[in-house]
């Protein structure tokens, strides 16, 4: 494996860590509703458990309400039950074929809890990026030990990997700060 391949591999894995962070943060509730919050809800459908998005249309009805429109008539009660029993603390209400899921306003205490959760997710992503940096540096050192690269090349590669790591950590900090602002916005 060459230095370029090691760097490319590290960058790819760091980008995956960044995407995982974005995905996990999209599930954290902010002041405004987001249909993705219901991604964790599963509904029984002909004997198997399916994500809600595979049995119904999810949409925003207004600034505080998510609309769930089941694709089959008989699914309304099951969907309503699944949302109510999820650990999201939501109370859906049927309105004909449409299920309205009002998002309760968040308390200041809940907002602070969520910012701690977001910071924790950000810290976990940083640890993952730093572990990837360590692995990449170990690969480069192994190339030096096997006399496949010079000491200068090894030093340049480590500097390059460090710059990549710094850039990724800066991006993580930016994403976390943005999510915290969303949560704290009233």
TrEMBL record:
Pfam families: RRF. It is found in: Cytoplasm. InterPro entries: Ribosome_recyc_fac, Ribosome_recyc_fac_dom, RRF_sf. Keywords: Cytoplasm, Protein biosynthesis. One of its GO terms (biological process) is cytoplasmic translational termination. GO terms for molecular function: ribosomal large subunit binding. Residues 21-184 form the Ribosome recycling factor domain. GO terms for cellular component: cytosol. Responsible for the release of ribosomes from messenger RNA at the termination of protein biosynthesis. May increase the efficiency of translation by recycling ribosomes from one round of translation to another. This is Ribosome-recycling factor. The gene is frr.
């Amino acid at each position: 494996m060459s230095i370029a391949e090691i760097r490319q591999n590290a960058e790819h894995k760091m980008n995956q860590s960044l995407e995982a962070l974005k995905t996990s943060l999209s599930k954290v509730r902010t002041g405004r509703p987001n249909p993705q919050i219901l991604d964790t809800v599963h509904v029984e459908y002909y004997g198997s458990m399916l994500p809600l998005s595979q049995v119904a249309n999810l949409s925003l009805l207004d600034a505080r309400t998510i609309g769930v429109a089941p694709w089959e008539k008989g699914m309304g009660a099951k969907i309503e039950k699944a949302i109510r029993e999820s650990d999201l603390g939501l109370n859906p209400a049927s309105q004909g074929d449409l299920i309205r899921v009002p998002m309760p306003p968040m308390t200041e205490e809940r907002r602070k809890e969520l910012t701690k959760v977001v910071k924790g997710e950000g810290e976990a992503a940083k640890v993952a990026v730093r572990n990837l940096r360590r692995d990449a540096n170990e690969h480069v050192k192994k190339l030096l030990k096997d006399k496949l690269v010079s000491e200068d090349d090894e030093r340049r590669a480590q500097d390059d990997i460090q710059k990549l790591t710094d850039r990724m950590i800066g991006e993580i900090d930016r994403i976390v700060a943005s999510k915290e602002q969303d949560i704290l916005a009233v």
